[in-house]
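Reading group handout, session on sequence-to-structure problems. Before we discuss, look at one worked example. The prompt was deliberately terse, the way you'd type it at a terminal:

> structure ATP phosphoribosyltransferase

The input record follows.
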Amino acid sequence: MKESSNIKITLALSKGRIFEETMPLLEEAGIQVAEKPEKSRKLIIQTSDPNIRLLILRASDVPTYVQYGSADLGIAGKDILIEHSAKHPGSLYQPIDLNIAKCKLSVAVKKDFNYLDAVKQGARLRVATKYIKMTRDHFAAKGVYVDIIKLYGSMELAPLIGLADAIVDIVSTGDTLSANGLVAVEDIMQISSRLIVNKASLKNRGDKLKPLMEAFRRASN
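And the output record:
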């Protein structure tokens, strides 16, 4: 059995851009990270504060760990949070937009594909994506019927081999699209990453969490 006095604050992060852009926020809060996940296989990383540790997870798993209390706090992109909230409405407290890991959720097609004709009201489109809710909502608002093909990676391949007419995916620089003969034709949403909080942790351990939350708020402004 854990002793409550020894339970650390756990912050869930994903590798890559979110981790790298979170580091300056932690440093401004006076917290140094002992190791970088790219150089270590560890999934639990200690910090200079003995009461704060990091969990390194897949981006899509961060909200789940926070929802079920395995992490007190987490940082996840707005895209991930919208999809998670569609299945688990009201499961997370999302107090702060950290304004990091900015990108766009966009529709992309082959360069020679006539997208304007393909999205006339009443048309039908095959779209490959892992962002089911946002894709369905976007095209429903345009009056376009979509057959959604759920993929988890290598999205750019789908239009090239005829699996889909279009893809909906995260776009940062557009280099990957260009390298595969695709072009972004419509932006659905601007994306940034948010701090998320387990509701029970905030209720029961708010005195420990709120100083860190406030430090994140100050650092992100």
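Points for discussion. First: The chain has two domains: 4-101+192-220, 103-191. Second: Residues 1-5 have pLDDT under 50 and may be disordered.
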